[in-house]
Amino acid sequence: MAEAALQLEFDDVVAGYGQAVVLDRLSFSLAPGRSLAILGRNGVGKTTLLETLMGHTRVTRGAIRWQGEDITHWAPHRRARAGLGWVPQEREVFPSLTVEENLRVIARPGAWTLARVFGLFPRLHERRGNQGHQLSGGEQQMLAIGRALMTNPSLLLLDEPMEGLAPIVVEELAAAIRQLCEGEGLASVVVEQHPVLALEMTHEAIVLERGTVVHSGPSATLAQDAALLEGLLGVGIAAEGA
Ligand SMILES: Nc1ncnc2c1ncn2[C@@H]1O[C@H](COP(=O)(O)OP(=O)(O)OP(=O)(O)O)[C@@H](O)[C@H]1O
User: Fold this and answer.
1) Is the CB of 237 inside a 6 Å radius of any atom of ligand 1?
2) Ligand 1 atom closest to Cα of 159?
3) What secondary structure letter does DSSP report for 3?
4) Overall domain count for the chain
């Protein structure tokens, strides 16, 4: 059955902070090895969706299922152990540990090793003896992704990975993320302010408005429909990244 092939499912989820509702009857699903872009204007709930997946919000309706289990009320650490690898927007690398220590300290056994992370990000290999605080923004982002990979996740959650980075670094990171999704078949959910970039990196996309899904479909189809993209995300956005 198709249902059995789903890896992640949000089913009619209402969630928020305290009494405030941010996600409002939100539903979507993702099959194993697929990548999903979460798009939408500022404040529509994109980060809250990731926070809810990691167990950091209050869920008052609906269910979240992961690999066939209902994880709606699981604690965050249990979700991490179950294969959800979160790369937070703040990156959160340890500033006084070296690159190599940052990677080793969080490692769990699996296919991703120090050597493979250095293979994906040669820059981290070059800077393996530098402390976290000595890295550029782009290098910190690579380290944040590398750290998540060292936990050997089944799903990588990326919250605005390109934010504040120079165009050349954005290219390098986008290539690495594409390699993870296409080459390695690692499932991912990417929240990104730059739709053109996000659609290039992913198989599927959903667009949120006021905490719910207003569009869902293949990334390539949305990327080619400038009028739809503009209608969903704002005037002029389709020209961005050109
Ligand atoms: N910790 C929090 N406590 C209370 N409200 C919050 C909290 N974090 C976010 N919100 C509110 O939830 C709503 C959605 O925010 P969220 O950060 O999820 O949106 P977003 O789509 O990721 O926006 P952006 O693109 O600006 O990052 C906003 O109204 C925001 O003010």
Assistant:
1) no
2) 22
3) G
4) 1
Distance in Å, CA 43 to ligand 1 centroid: 5
Q: What is the position in ligand 1's atom list of the atom closest to the CA of 40?
A: 21
Question: Whose C-alpha lies nearest to ligand 1, atom 29?
Answer: 43
Q: Using alpha carbons, list the distances in angstroms from residue 151 to 26, 77, 144, 203, 236.
A: 28, 12, 11, 24, 39
**Does residue 67 sit within a domain?**
yes
Q: Is 155 exposed, middle or buried (0-12, 13-18, 19+ CB in 10 A)?
A: buried
Is 183 among the domain residues? no
Ligand 1 contact via 39 beta carbon (within 6 Å): no
Q: From atom 23 of ligand 1, which residue's Cα is the shortest distance away? A: 43
Q: Are 36 and 192 in contact (CB under 8 A)?
A: no
Task: Evaluate whether 214 touches 208 at the Cβ level (below 8 Å).
Answer: yes
Q: Residue 93 — pLDDT band, cuts 50, 70, 90?
A: confident
Which residue, judged by its Cα, is nearest atom 2 of ligand 1? Answer: 17
Residue ranges making up the domain that contains 212: 1-83+156-162+189-237
- Encode pLDDT of 199-209 as tens digits: 999 999 999 99
Whole-number pLDDT of residue 1: 44
Beta-carbon contacts of 224 under 8 Å, excluding residues fewer than 6 positions away, are none
Whole-complex ipTM? 0.95
Nearest-CA residue for atom 7 of ligand 1 = 17
The pTM of the full predicted model, rounded to 2 decimals, is 0.90
